[in-house]
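INPUT
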Amino acid sequence: MIPTFIEKDAAAVHARLSKLYPEGSRTTKVLYDAQKYSLLAGGKRIRPVLVMETCRMLGGDVRVALDYGAAVEMVHTYSLIHDDLPCMDDDDLRRGRPTNHKVFGEDIAILAGDGLLTDAFATILCCPYATAQSRADAALALSQGAGSYGMVKGQVIDMFGETHALTPEELLELHRGKTGALIEASVRLGCHAAELTRDDQRIEAIVTYAQNIGLAFQVIDDILDCTQSAEVLGKSVGSDAKDGKTTFMTFYDVQGARAYARELTDRAISAIRTLPECDRLVELAEYLVQRDY
Amino acid sequence: MIPTFIEKDAAAVHARLSKLYPEGSRTTKVLYDAQKYSLLAGGKRIRPVLVMETCRMLGGDVRVALDYGAAVEMVHTYSLIHDDLPCMDDDDLRRGRPTNHKVFGEDIAILAGDGLLTDAFATILCCPYATAQSRADAALALSQGAGSYGMVKGQVIDMFGETHALTPEELLELHRGKTGALIEASVRLGCHAAELTRDDQRIEAIVTYAQNIGLAFQVIDDILDCTQSAEVLGKSVGSDAKDGKTTFMTFYDVQGARAYARELTDRAISAIRTLPECDRLVELAEYLVQRDY
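OUTPUT
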């Protein structure tokens, strides 16, 4: 069961995202169509929900969190489009539909992703309800989470893992980058939406929460990849095991992996337990560790 | 003859860029190597020179302009890496060396570009000498120049032009996006480096300058593409005409194109003539219109 507040936040983000990108002319329509195709394809919208609920917990303006959350989802969407390319993971199916490059071609898929990534920063920096300090802090957190020491690094380690066995430390570094960094950025953006400055001590606790749910999220993904059907997940499954790629299932059996995800979730929850109004973030962590798709 | 101040600025930018990106581990070395390969390959560094000289003209802190200029060059470099990909312009040669994907593979080339684009924002937003307002304004200008209504749009129109004849208006829109938008962003970043706010009237004059030299730059590029050798330019030539692509040479002969570039340069110069200390920007415009490589 998805908690109601997640569904409400996700619907608000979807509405915000659907306002982006015009019809376009005969020369540009394909770009904006490709961007909307992937942006409005659904998905759990976990990252913007994290931005919004972190901001709400801290008493911030949720209109700011909605813009910042839309920006994080734009970056997440670009990363999926590029990851699915033939020279990367070469996936044909995403969220139950053909991947972006299958519909629009590789050139447009790359450019649609480049545009989404770039426009995400403008979405933060144009937010009319936020101070310059908040916008600068938020854009920096997004850049650091998504860049060459965060998400991009994770994807590079993932490509390396296509042809090499990874050590447990390298697997952790992969996921701290590939999924963890943007999840951490999401809570940071929620903090900056609530006008916390970068040295506020509450950020550290919330980041510890994010790092642990991020890792738990990936452990669950690895479990589902080898136990669930493609129909339920809406994407290709079992490809990691087939390719001999290192995953958490290389080091754990299903029961061990579930216990590890539980332990990470407990660590996440205990990190924010002392913050007032933390109930929704706790509920979100529980939902993520118990999900079956 | 390259004016001395351009060579000095370019050397300072090169030194700044060479501080980016570490050695890396066995999993990440290929990413950082790919980024440094293209970032430090040389090039005229016109965009960062524009940032620095605009800031200097306005009496701003050139240390800020150096960081902002490095960011623009990172975005320019990402755009070259992605444009050269097989599914885009499919170029093997760039600045006299094999293109990024030829050396590092398509997957790493895409990720190196994604990382450079993302890290450019952090380079602006981490600048220790700039106010939050300056950093937020500069990052916004970069995002708007590089994104789906600027450079990315230009590249999409360019891809459309591979298979369609463009109207003169579409050709102008292509170049206003593909090269013009980042050149405009460069002077905006120079203005924000000097702490001009977005409503300062001087920005309008300097942007008019940038728009006109940007278009002149492209007209000269089109002339050189059909009159110069690959050896001199360090890249493939004559490919536009060969592919039947619309260029300025579709609508002008060499003499007419040179006259058009001259007219654009005159418009650029007259836009900034009333600003004190405009000499270097004038000299830069003259250099760009007279260059033969």
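end of record. Chain B touches chain A through 56 residues (CB under 8 Å).
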